[in-house]
Amino acid sequence: MEGVACASFTSSASKSLSFSLSQSSIITLRQNYHNNTLKSKSPRKLVIRASSGSSSGSVVTLLDYGAGNVRSVRNAIRYLGYEIEDVRTPKDILNADRLIFPGVGAFASAMDVLTKTGMAEALCTHIENDRPFLGICLGLQLLFDSSEENGPVNGLGLIPGVVGRFNSLNGFRVPHIGWNALQIAKDSEILDDIGDRHVYFVHSYRAMPSNDNKEWVSSTCNYGDDFIASIRRGNVHAVQFHPEKSGDVGLSVLRRFLNPKSQGSKKPTQGKASKLAKRVIACLDVRTNDKGDLVVTKGDQYDVREQTKENEVRNLGKPVELAGQYYQDGADEVSFLNITGFRDFPLGDLPMLQVLRHTSENVFVPLTVGGGIRDFTDANGRYYSSLEVASEYFRSGADKISIGSDAVYAAEEYIKTKVKTGKSSLEQISKVYGNQAVVVSIDPRRVYVQGPNDVQFKTIRVPKPGPNGEEYAWYQCTVSFLAPYLFA
Question: Do residues 156 and 227 both lie within one domain?
């Protein structure tokens, strides 16, 4: 695909799962501990609607080209007290006083949309004229010459360099997912409140600092190698991390971009690049009770009902409220696993979509959702691809999609044929939204045996004997309707 040739920057300014595991350790916080305060993190202040930004009449122009979770950015902007005007034509970009481009998804898909709509040229003009601009994640990568993602694919060509994939040969897992620290390279203004605090990254590709682009680089981050975490030149800013998912410190980045004059003359605090921080992930099993209400529940060997005469679904609280409490107590991510029996029509599960929408209004950390994300045909014979299903969840506030049974079936088929068809839900969704947006949930069940020679699979010695005194166990991987798959 042909890229967009943009002239060089002409401003005279001298400034500028159930989870996919990463190198960081992960602590999974199960919902039965929801009354405990997380001691390792300072509590956050949860507000329904904040007014800490400028006047309510202040308008921010948002470029949403239709891929990924942009709802979180919208909610963060509104949380800070600003109104949003969407880009509908290239002229809207040229007329924007402040433009935010929360690029989500794959590089090639984004460039294809921007080029065909004429927005790529308008973006170049906006940036060349040194108009206030903030790119987020892919919104940073697209500024470079090209990307290796499904490519090579030409980018906007404003910043020298090629966006390449992380090197996994050095033991660092790809994608880079988690909270990492920044090494501040120069006065960046929007990063002044970060210091040594961590921000949230989720990406498989990155741009590398070089002599050709050093005048743009305002901070770097280390994940195996140093990569560009943010750029700044004049009024043009872009960050590889997600401020809308980085809690209070991320909101400060957005606030400083939207209203830089209100921040005083505070100098940036030098950050220290480090390994990924440990993450606390709140995992909420959600399903409908007998009254039709969504509740957070907990199963005992997949049985979520109380052992009482009424035999009601175990109710630990409301999903939105519990997610907000976890965020307030310092959780780094929240995961919803929908175990409701709606599998014949996932897109009809409006309550779960509403849970995502309401949660994303006040919870500014990553949200993952899983359950029923697959190809299906409704009662009227209408076919829906897994991509269509996932897209609705992304639009409702999800940052990552968790796939369970469908991933097992895809893996089984690949082991059998050694062929990637491109038709599996994993391949369909990752092609449009990027690999980092799809995680695999493995649901293992322990099977006790007397000794390691009783089965052909790998066994472990258990610290507590099984119901019949068994000292060893192996694991089955369960899928739809709890049909067992072997998991060695």
Answer: yes
Residues 238 and 305 in one domain: no
Dist. CA 356–CA 128, nearest whole Å:
37
Instruction: Tell me whether residue 86 is one of the annotated catalytic residues.
Output: no
Measure the CA–CA gap between 246 and 98, rounded to whole angstroms. Answer: 21
Domain that holds residue 462: 444-477
pLDDT digits (tens, 9 = 90+) for 358-388: 898 888 888 998 887 877 777 788 888 888 8
Q: Residue 176 catalytic?
A: no
Strand residue runs (E) in 152-269: 153-154, 159-165, 176-180, 183-184, 199-203, 205-207, 217-223, 225-233, 236-239
Residue 181, C-beta contacts closer than 8 angstroms, at least 6 positions apart: 196, 197, 198, 199, 221, 271, 272, 273, 274, 277
Q: Are residues 158 and 70 in the same domain?
A: yes
443 is an active site residue: yes
Higher local confidence (pLDDT), 15 or 31: 31
Instruction: In whole angstroms, give the CA distance from residue 335 to residue 319.
Output: 10
- Return the number of other C-beta atoms located less than 10 Å from residue 216's C-beta: 25
Question: Among the options 130, 192, 285, 349, which is catalytic?
Answer: 285
* Interval 290-329: pLDDT, tens: 676 777 777 665 566 766 676 676 767 788 999 989 888 8
Identify the domain boundary among 224, 258, 292. Answer: 258
pLDDT of res. 131: 95
34 is catalytic: no
The b/e string for 128-149 (b: 16+ C-beta within 10 A; e otherwise) is bebbbbbbbbbbbbbbbbbbeb
Rg (CA), the chain: 23
Closest to 124 measured CA to CA, from 1, 3, 228, 5? 5
Q: Are 382 and 395 in contact (CB under 8 A)?
A: no
DSSP E strand stretches across 341-384:
367-370, 376-377, 383-384
Q: Residue 299 belongs to a domain with what CATH number?
A: 3.20.20.70
Question: Which DSSP helix (H) or strand (E) runs through 103?
Answer: strand 99-103
Q: Is the peptide bond before 152 cis (omega within 30 degrees of 0)?
A: yes
Each residue's pLDDT tens digit, 82-110: 999 999 999 999 999 999 998 777 888 88
Catalytic: which of 121, 124, 126, 137? 137
Burial of 309 (0-12, 13-18, 19+ CB in 10 A): exposed
Report how many domains make up the chain.
Answer: 3
How far the first Cα of the chain sits from its last, in Å, is 43
Co-location of 387 and 308 in the same domain = yes
Give pLDDT, residue 250: 93
Of 99-113, 157-171, 248-262, 305-319, the poorest mean pLDDT is in 305-319
285 is catalytic: yes
Catalytic residue among 34, 203, 242, 358: 242
Write out pLDDT tens, residues 55-70: 334 899 999 876 556 8
Annotated active-site residue in 149, 193, 244, 399: 244
Q: How confident is the model at residue 18 (pLDDT cuts 50, 70, 90)?
A: very low
